[in-house]
């Protein structure tokens, strides 16, 4: 079988993958590349998920790319607007012609004798196998399982006679008009679905085991609108992006350093949005702000649905599913025609593909992540992972900038491979993702490790990462370079 070769293979045509390709076109036009996408279209999350109201929960000035302006007046964009933005970027930078669809990577093998990666893919539709070789891999496949989300083992689920659905597998033909709907969960997906369907249903209830921090923000940024009105679009985009980065960093750090004070401020804001709807026990989490991801609701749409009486929140636990709904631990029956299990994602690193070096399996769980973008002892393999406390794209943009510099350094010095090595004798281990969320705890044993000191620790700080990835020199003692 013929093997196709290119300098670089990008895995995934989502936000990170399209961004990485655009960066290559801009900064390293001498490199040949292809983008392997397992699905039939670009967009990743934003084309896969179809549940009502799906939108970004980061503002688009930071969630969008540094090199492409966000011209919409909405800061928190719905999925169709994000897809339009991605397609525009792909076409502007001639990325589209380099995408190969229906190519799911099942294995990677690095040959140290020629410093080449060989990838085996399978077409999910025809089951045909293909092989590719490249010098470098950019893994932009994200971190969650595209085949299914996470659903707990609910007692008595088989007794329920209505419709049970996970948002990741939303049926766009589902008729929820004038139906009783229960949304299980309290995260970003739940607080998005509830207000999006509230006008059409008879009643929608968000059933949560415990509360989440929720904040309402205006969907139209007046300061951004003013800046965009008086300045050229690229300058305005950069200024608004900088403003939002600094604002988000300030809020995050205040929550970490002064949690009790920030709790009071947050609860005061929620109470103002709720009106007569009770704050406790539904909106007072038992953890500190930013121990888990914050939920943002544009223009307070979630709170408006509650005040209008079309939506409700119940904080309780599930005893069992029954024929007509859910029996709560208190004995109450919560009636439902449709139950939505907005209970989170299932994580799967690198799309579940097997990685090996010289045909020997490579165990990623034994490796540390270097500067958030390379695994120790894994040559020419770059990982794109975003922030958990800010916009995903901020980090993936910085990763692309670093890789661009790395590729130029390799060419200048006639190197064909680079890998990171742990040289510390006492490097401690901490969880890779420092959030106290269920989907992270469930995946601890399948993820790489994070060290307890730089550069093996992820500080989730854009300014520090900007210095490390865009300013600091490439060559340092933990990197090992080789020539053919």
Descriptors:
484 residues, 25 strands, 12 helices, alpha/beta
Can you describe what's shown?
This protein has 484 residues and is α/β, with parallel strands linked by helices. The protein is 28% helix and 23% strand. The chain has helices at 15-27, 45-48, 60-63, 79-92, 188-197, 222-230, 233-257, 259-274, 301-307, 392-412, 438-441, 462-471, and strands at residues 3-11, 33-36, 99-100, 104-111, 116-122, 129-139, 163-165, 180-184, 203-208, 214-217, 295-298, 311-315, 318-322, 325-328, 333-335, 338-341, 354-357, 360-361, 369-370, 374-375, 381-383, 417-420, 429-430, 450-451, 479-482. The strands form 7 sheets. Strands 1, 2, 3, 4, 5, 6, 17, 18 and 21 form a 9-stranded mixed beta sheet that branches. A 5-stranded parallel beta sheet has the order 7-16-8-9-12. Helix 1 (15-27) packs parallel to helix 10, helix 7 (233-257) packs across helix 8 and helix 10 (392-412) packs parallel to helix 12 (462-471). It is globular and about 70 Å long. The two termini are 26 Å apart. 39% of the residues are buried. The model has no long low-confidence stretch (mean pLDDT 92).
């Amino acid at each position: 079988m013929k093997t196709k070769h290119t300098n670089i293979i990008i895995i995934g045509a989502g936000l990170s993958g399209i961004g990485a390709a655009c960066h290559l076109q801009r900064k390293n036009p001498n490199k040949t590349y292809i983008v392997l996408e397992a699905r039939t279209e670009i967009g990743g999350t934003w084309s896969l998920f179809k549940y009502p109201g799906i939108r970004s929960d980061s503002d688009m000035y930071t969630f969008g790319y540094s090199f492409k302006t966000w011209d919409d007046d909405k800061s928190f964009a719905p999925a169709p607007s994000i897809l339009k933005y991605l397609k525009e970027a792909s076409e502007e930078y001639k990325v589209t012609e380099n995408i190969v669809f229906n190519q799911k990577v099942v294995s990677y093998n690095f040959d140290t004798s020629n410093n080449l990666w060989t990838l085996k893919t399978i077409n999910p539709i025809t089951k045909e196998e293909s092989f590719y070789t490249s010098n470098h891999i950019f893994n932009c496949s994200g971190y969650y399982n595209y085949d299914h989300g996470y659903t707990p083992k609910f007692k008595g689920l088989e007794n329920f006679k209505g419709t049970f659905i996970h948002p990741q597998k939303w049926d766009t033909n589902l008729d929820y008009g004038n139906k009783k709907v229960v949304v299980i969960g309290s995260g970003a997906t739940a607080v998005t679905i509830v207000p999006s369907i509230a006008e059409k249903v008879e009643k929608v209830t968000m059933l949560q085991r415990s509360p989440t921090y929720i904040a309402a923000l205006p969907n139209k940024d007046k300061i951004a609108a003013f800046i965009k009105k008086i300045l050229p679009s690229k300058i305005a985009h950069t200024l608004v992006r900088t403003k939002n980065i600094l604002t988000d960093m300030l809020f995050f750090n205040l929550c970490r350093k002064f949690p009790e004070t920030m709790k009071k401020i947050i609860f005061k804001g929620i109470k103002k949005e709720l009106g007569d709807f009770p704050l406790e026990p539904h909106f007072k989490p038992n953890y500190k702000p930013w121990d888990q991801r914050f939920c943002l609701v544009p223009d307070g749409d979630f709170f408006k649905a509650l005040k209008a009486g079309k939506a409700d929140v119940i904080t309780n636990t599930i005893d069992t599913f029954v024929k007509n709904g859910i029996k709560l631990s208190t004995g109450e029956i919560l009636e439902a025609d449709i139950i939505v299990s907005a209970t989170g994602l299932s994580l799967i690193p690198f799309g579940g593909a097997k990685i090996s070096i010289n045909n020997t399996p490579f165990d990623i769980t034994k490796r540390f992540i270097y500067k958030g973008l390379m695994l120790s002892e894994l040559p020419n393999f770059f990982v794109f992972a975003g922030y958990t406390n800010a916009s995903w794209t901020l980090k993936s943009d910085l990763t692309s900038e670093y890789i661009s510099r790395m590729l130029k350094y390799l060419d200048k010095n006639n190197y064909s491979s680079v890998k990171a090595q742990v040289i510390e004798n006492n490097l401690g281990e901490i969880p890779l993702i420092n959030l106290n969320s269920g989907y992270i705890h469930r995946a601890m044993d399948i993820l790489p490790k994070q060290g307890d000191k730089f550069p093996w620790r992820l500080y989730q700080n854009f300014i520090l990462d900007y210095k490390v990835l865009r300013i600091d020199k490439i060559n340092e003692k933990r990197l090992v370079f080789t020539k053919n």
